[in-house]
Structure formats: structure tokens, C-alpha cells
Amino acid sequence: MDLTTVEVNKFHLELAGNPLDISLHVARPISDPMVDGLFKGVIDLGKIQSVIPLDSTTLAGIITSDVSFGGTMSMLEKEQYEQFKADGNVAVNGLTYKSPDLPQGLTVKNAELLFSPRYLDLKSFNLLIGRSDMQLSGKITDFLPYVFSNKTIKGNFVLTSGLLDANEFMTGSAPADTVTDTTQMTLFEVPKNIDFALNSNLKKVLYDKLEISDIKGLIEMKNGAAKLTNLSMNLLQGSMQMNGEYNTSNLAKPFIDFNLKINDIDIPSSFNAFSMVARFAPVAKNAKGKVSAGISLWSQLDQHMSPVLPTVSGSGTLSSRSVEIGNSRVFEKLADALKNDKFRQIALKDVNIGFDIKDGRVYVKPFTTKMGNTSLTIAGDQGLDQTLNYTMALTLPRTEIGSSVMNSLTSAAAAKGIAIKP
Known about the structure:
Blueprint: E1 6-15, E2 18-27, E3 34-44, H1 45-51, E4 58-72, H2 73-77, E5 85-99, E6 102-115, E7 119-129, E8 132-141, H3 143-149, E9 153-161, E10 164-165, E11 194-207, E12 210-222, E13 225-235, E14 238-247, E15 255-266, H4 267-273, H5 275-280, E16 287-300, E17 313-326, H6 329-338, E18 345-358, E19 361-371, E20 374-383, E21 388-395, H7 403-415
Parallel strand pairs: 9-11, 10-11
Antiparallel strand pairs: 1-2, 2-3, 3-4, 4-5, 5-6, 6-7, 7-8, 8-9, 11-12, 12-13, 13-14, 14-15, 15-16, 16-17, 17-18, 18-19, 19-20, 20-21
């Protein structure tokens, strides 16, 4: 049997006018299989569809290939991959695909992949899916060990995009202008046998209710985790810099671990964009102003890539030059107690807050801020169940206290022999 050889010197096929040339030589199938072959052809997908109808599917485009390969099994077993021949190229032009499973449609304007024993060279890949465009180029190494021995494949890429609408890929998604709270992402598993580095430059990204612009930075995928390094972006009328990782190495307990630096984002916009802000800081619903923050954050994720809120932990600082708060039950009660409507709509100046997040609660360290002539020192904690546990110490001029309240205080003090001078 080991003397058996297979010879296909030249096999020519035309399908709907598409020429395909194949040659194949196989020897020593038992002791050390050797293979040598060639695949060369031009495929017009539009013509193929006329011969093989695809129900409710549109398919067109030209694929050209000229690939040769050759080597022995012992080369692969001994990891002598450079001795294994793999040369040629595959090119795609004007490929379009649309089906019930991909109603927004897909277009590959052009793509070219060059083969060599050492690497695959993706010279270009210009993709359009729905409204989203992506341009990708780079090199892939160790692809033969990956294919034949399931070892780690490595690559370095550059990704650019003018618009990336992630809402089009969400489960049960709607168009970007009708995205609702029911829109959900599905947990994405980062493969453990890839080692990719992606330098990104994305002009505009739509994700749920967020519009993000000028995303730049390094994204690395390795050992089941996606690591972000110096990733910067503009959002919510401000900017953010991010370092950290999204980790699915244990798919039952995926997690995020991030360090964020946030600069001058709009408070109402962040409340509307992030459900976690609404849970941890409901007062933001009625607040106006911009805020900056430095945050370290860790959390497990559920199967829809949302934080499992009781597991959220972290710490940070939050600052603002000016914050206005209205319709707050806390300050409404304060205004009633002091008989001064000024406290119903407050403006805090030079806010600087330190906080910790643990067991689903935010613990605010004591901080002092000014509200006109009034000084407030606030500390406490709050939970996901909307419970509050805060203390507030006020230092305020007598003129800020209503006359009836002042008279009551004066009378109570006089009853104890204390004289309050006006």
C-alpha cells in the first residue's frame, strides 16, 4: 500500500463558465504521506448562483486563486514548517452577500491574501456590513502549526473604520435610531489559541445608546482575553482613556478589569447611556454639569456582557467644577426643614469625591463642598436597591435659615439658659 501513488496531473473544470485547474500528487500514504498540489481558478459567484440557486440569497463577486502546496507529514510532525511549500495568493473583488440571516448585507470591495511558508500576508481587506465599514491589513504567522497541530496562531493587524454600528450585530437589534433597553449583546468568547495584536483607529462607533468617536489604541487577544492598552476615545461630550482586559478564559465566569480616566463627560448623557450609573447614582438623573473621574473597576459579566452588579468592585475619585442638582428628595426635605427654597435647587462648586465600590454598594468618603455661603461635608454609602445611608454636616450663615426656624432655635436655647445673639 505504501507504494501507492495518486497522480492528477491536470484536472480542468468549468462551472458556469468559471475555469478551475487542479493538480495533485500523493505518495507514500502509509509511511510518510507526501503531497504536492496546485489550485488555480477564477470564480464568478454571480454565475455560480445561476447554476446552483440559493433561496432568498443574493451572491455575487469574483474570487481568483493561484495557490500551490507541497511537503510531507514528517515535516509537520517535526515542526519543519518552513520546508513545507505554501505559496500563492487569493483575491476577492466586488463580493456581495445578502440573506435572511444577514439582511443588512455584506460587501467585500476587495481583499488580497498572499501565502508563504512563514506567514500569511493580508495585503487588504475592505469590508462593508450594513452601514459599517472596516479596513484590515496585517500578517499572520504560525498558521501551519495552527492548522495541523492546533497550536497558537499569531498576527499583527491594523484596523480602520469610518463607521462601526455595533447595534446591527446585537441580538434582536433595531436600527440605531430606535435602540431600546431590550437590545442585548451576546457574550463573545476570546479564543485561547490566538495571539493577535490589533492597532485600531475608528472614527465613529455606535454601541447601544452611545456614540463614540476617534477610538485609537492597541487591542491584544491572547490566552482567552482581550487586553486594551492606551485606548482613547471621545464620548458623552468628553473623553476617556482606558487600560484593562475583557477575560473569557473561564467562560462560566467572564470578567472585566479596567482602569479608566474620564474627562469632562456630561452627567445627564452618562445617566441615559449607562444603566450602572442609574443604579449606583440615581441622583444623576436630575443633575446637570460635567464630571471627571479616575476609576479602577472589576466585575463579572453575565451572558449578555452586562455587569453582574453584586460583583462590581473598585475605587476611584470623581471631581467637577460645578454640579447643579434639582428635584432631589434629600434637598427638598432640607429646604422644608430650613424654610428656605434656595436648597431645592442647589449648585455645588469644586466637588472632589473619593469612593469605593464593594458588595454592590458605593461607599463615599467624607468630602466638603461649597454651595454659595454654605459649606457641606457629606459621607455615606448607597446600594443597588436604591437605599441611602448618608450624613451631611452644614455650616451656614444665620441668614440662610428661615425666621420661623430661627425663632424656634432661639426659644429652645433660651429655655436652657443659652442666649443667641443676632
